[in-house]
Amino acid sequence: MKQAVGTLAPCSESARSDAEVLLAAVTGKPRHEPYGFPERHLASPDAERYRCWIERRCAGEPVAYLLGQREFWSLCLRTTPDVLIPRPETELLVQTALNLLAHTQQPRVADLGTGSGAIALALANERPDLRVTAVEVCGAALDVARDNAAALDLRNVEFLQGNWCEPLQGLEGFEMLISNPPYVASNDPHLAQGDLRFEPSLALDGGPDGLAAYRQILGRAHRVLRPGAIMLFEHGYDQGVQVPALLREHGYTDVSSAKDYAGQPRLCFGRWPGTAENC
Q1: pLDDT tens string 74-112
Q2: Cβ atoms within 10 Å, residue 216
Q3: pLDDT tens-digit readout, 190-227
Q4: Pairing of the two strands 265-271 and 225-234
């Protein structure tokens, strides 16, 4: 363990945590057990597997991809390089959606750009009466989301392949559209750094100003939302002015914003009044 932490320290800000989590996955034991039994040694096959994982993590490969899973909203989700790794801050999006829908019976909700299915499945698990439609343009990512739904035995979710709102045409009457779209600007140097190097660019690259996906979604969303329905977005920490402004420009009212657990602007939502103005 000590050697693994030392190896990871120059290349990971979470070296000790990474080493503990990977060792626990190899041994099947609680992550802190090695500290109570320092005399124990890994068997040869386990030691080789652990060494390989440490090397790959040191090269920047995310722990979630090494393990093939990530916990989100207390759900264990299969996670592959075809999908964005679910982030803790996105749980705020789920909680906000649940709060906004608390008094709506059997609401119809669509998760646009579902990826691993994290948002859609968290909502479906928390509210069995929800009718959730998960939309994803990438077929490989949609397969991961379907597998996660099957593993969790969640049957109130349907999956559609396509770009943003396009597969929803003809399915009018949604009480909420929710999305964590790509919002990193194409020239942002962070895309070539750290874990982001390994994640799908389709789920990260938001165009020249990071707002391309928001414009595409808002250009069609009004066609499937019922009057008074909610459009709910996650956005970048530096987009707390631009994304709410886009909602207003497209005719949404009662636009509100919220900060994440670090105090950074992270999400916004507005209500569709049910008119064709500003579309």
Answers
A1: 999 999 999 999 999 999 999 999 999 999 999 999 999
A2: 17
A3: 888 888 899 999 999 999 999 999 999 999 999 999 99
A4: antiparallel
Which helix H or strand E contains 143, and what residues bound it?
A: helix 139-151
Please state whether the predicted TM-score (pTM) of the whole model is above 0.85: yes
Query: Which of the two residues, 9 and 30, has the higher pLDDT score?
Result: 9
224 with 253: CB under 8 angstroms? no
Secondary structure letter of residue 173 according to DSSP: -
Is residue 16 classed as helix, strand or coil in its secondary structure?
helix
91: tokens are 């749980």
Torsion angle defined by CA atoms of residues 120, 123, 124 and 129, in that order, rounded to the nearest 10 degrees: -130
In the block, tokens 């320092």 appear at 38
Round to whole Å and give the CA distance between 269 and 116: 23
Domain ranges of the chain: 2-59, 80-271
Residue 39 in this model has a pLDDT that exceeds 80: no
The class that CATH gives domain 80-271 is alpha beta
